[in-house]
Amino acid sequence: MRRPIIMAPMPAALSTAPPPAPPRPTRRWEFDALRGLMLVLMTLTHLPTRLAEHLGQPFGYVSAAEGFVLLSAFMAGMVYTRKGRRHGIPVMRRAFRQRALVIYGCQLLALLFLFTVIAVLGLGIDQPAVKNLMSFYLQHPVTALLAAMALVYQPPLLDILPLYILFMLISPWVLSHGMRHGWRGLLATSLALWLLAQFGVTHLMYDWVVAHTGLPVPFQETGSFDTLAWQFIWILGLWMGAQLVVAPQTLPPRAPFPRWMVLVALAMGLTGLAWRHAIGQVPLPNWPEVNVLFDKWLLGPLRLLNLLALMVLTLRFGPWLTARMRRLRPLEAMGRASLPVFCAHLGVVLLVLAVFGEADPHRPWWQDLAIAGCSLAVLLAVAHAWPRWAPRWPRERPAADQALSAPQGSTNSVEGS
After folding, report:
1. In 150, 151, 298, 394, which residue has its Cα 20 to 30 A from 163's Cα atom?
2. Shortest CA distance to 241 belongs to which of 326, 147, 310, 174?
3. Residue 1: which residues within 8 A CB-CB, separation 6 or more?
4. CA separation (Å) from 413 to 91, 183, 403, 404?
5. Model-level pTM?
6. How many other β-carbons are positioned within 10 Å of the β-carbon of residue 385?
7. Are 335 and 68 in contact (CB under 8 A)?
8. Per-residue model confidence as pLDDT tens digits over 101-131
């Protein structure tokens, strides 16, 4: 009787099958670290200390707000485009709506904190900074409360989350249109809206609303950020994030910018950096008509060019720098928990304003440094504690899996409405 032949398994080294691809990371630590850096700079700028004068707009005539909005839009474009391609556009839209609802809840909590704790503290201490911050609420409390809940009345410091809510609500339409029809028309329309904002169209729209509705909220109380202007940063960031999913080779590890563009961006970036630290945060103190071109709230043309120059330099040299530097874990933690850390920064800044008031040149330097250090420590504590507190949402199944388990005749695809 012949013995059976037992085939030994082929060694892995001789196997012709390609090894399984490693799972692709869902986050890029450098993007989280950049967002964390923007949160730190934003906090130091908003705190009423003398550090704000030196650390505000540290890279030129661009603030941390522009960088934070651009990075947030970039992450949203990357994450939600991937979600839309894997699970379907309806799932992506639902995720955007849920996120907008969470941000709206954060805005309501911030308003409640301002109208109760900060109001009691500020009025009890007779703090002019708090009275100026919420002057419209103190004069018309009922109107202000209702308008604030409708995101029409936006006190200073509490005017960026309403901007985010609006952008999150329009983003599903923007991303789905970009996935189906491309981005050229979207980018051209966004740029046209930014251009209209430079000629005061936003104020004209406000006047039209007041004439037809009798809106009692003054224009200066509807938020500092011009929505028509700032939407361009958001749309640009969404496009960049979506491109990283659709065509990964068009962005890092090395963005394919022509040499002349990199040289122009380098010249503009260095000029803005040197000018800001040599002259100050106001580019030309005696030329207000020129300073409008650098206006933050309107996102003036020269300010936008400065931002685009820094963006080109970051995409061109950022991967090279990232490969040679150690990971910045504290900034990463802040960037991953950007929404709770941002809300914590609002609470800290409002408390400091209520207790200490505006920045005082006669205040000892050690006190300003202590305020800044304690504030950043609070943000870092929130960033590290948030993963334990954050609610766990059920993960969506891919559209293909949903189709297998759906009743016969039902469909769910990326092209769904």
Report:
1. 394
2. 174
3. none
4. 10, 21, 8, 12
5. 0.85
6. 13
7. no
8. 999 999 999 999 999 999 999 888 888 989 9
